[in-house]
Amino acid sequence: MPSDLPDRIARVRARIDDAATAAGRRPDDVRLMLATKTQDAGTVLAAVHAAADLAAARGDDRPVLVGENRVQELVAKAPDLADLVAAGRLEVHMIGTLQRNKINQMLPTVTGLAAVDRLSLAEAVARRCVRDGRTLDVMVQVNVSGEESKSGVAPTEAVELATGVAALEGLHLTGFLTIGANTPDEDEVRAGFARLRAVRDEVVAGGTPGTEDARELSMGMSTDLELAVAEGATIVRVGTAVFGARPPA
Ligand SMILES: *Cc1c(COP(=O)(O)O)cnc(C)c1O
Prior knowledge:
Layout: H1 5-22, E1 31-35, H2 41-57, E2 64-68, H3 71-86, E3 90-94, H4 103-106, E4 112-116, H5 119-132, E5 136-141, H6 155-166, E6 171-177, H7 186-206, E7 216-218, H8 225-230, E8 235-238, H9 240-243
Parallel strand pairs: 1-2, 1-8, 2-3, 3-4, 4-5, 5-6, 6-7
InterPro entries: Ala_racemase_N, PLP-binding_barrel, PyrdxlP_homeostasis
Organism: Isoptericola sediminis
Protein name: Pyridoxal phosphate homeostasis protein
C-alpha cells in the first residue's frame, strides 16, 4: 500500500478542483470515486478513510465512493467495508461488466451498479431487487468511442436503453458511465465525453418517468479526468493516480 495515500488523494482532488474551476463549475459538483480493483481490503480502507478526512476538511459530508470491477473482489472485500456502508459513510458501486450468473453474489455487496449495458441484464437485476425489497441505484454504460474492447451500449441506442431501465421497479436510474477513448488525441477523448453528456441531456429532457434523477456523468480516469470535468463529469473514477500502477492483468 502506498504510504502517501492521503497526499495522492489530495493531489487528485486538487486536479479535479482546478479542472472544475477552469470550466466555470463548482468543485463540489465533481465527486471522486476510488477505483479499487486489485487493491487489498486494507489498502481500500486506508484510502476510504483518507478520502473521508479530506472531504470532511472541505465540509463535504457525502459518503465516499468506491468502484469495483469484479464480483469476486467485491465479495472478498465486502466484510471489511460493511460497517462503513451500513453507517452511510461509503457507497460501493460495481463499475465492471457484470455476468448474469453473478448478480446474486453481487447484490449484497453493492449500493450501486454503474455498468448496465443491456435491458435483459437490468431486468434480471430488477427482479432480484424487487424480491429483496430494495431499490438499487444504477447507471447505463455507454461506449462513446466505439472501441470494440469496451463494453457499453452504443450512443445511438443509449436513450432507449435508459428509458427502458428507468421504467423498471427495483432500479433507480442515476445517470451514465463511460470509459474515454484510448487515444492521445484530446479532442477525440473530449468529443466522446460530450457524447455522453448529450445522451444524458436527451434522456432528462425527455421527461420519461424514472429519468428525473439520471443526471450523473461518471467519466474520466487518472489520465483524462481534466477533459471529463471540462465536459461535465460529476464523478471521476481514479485508480492509478491514487494507488500507483497496477500489476499487468
Ligand atoms: C480501472 C478503472 C478505472 C480507473 O482507471 P485508472 O486509469 O487506474 O485511474 C476507472 N473506471 C473503470 C471502469 C476501471 O476499470
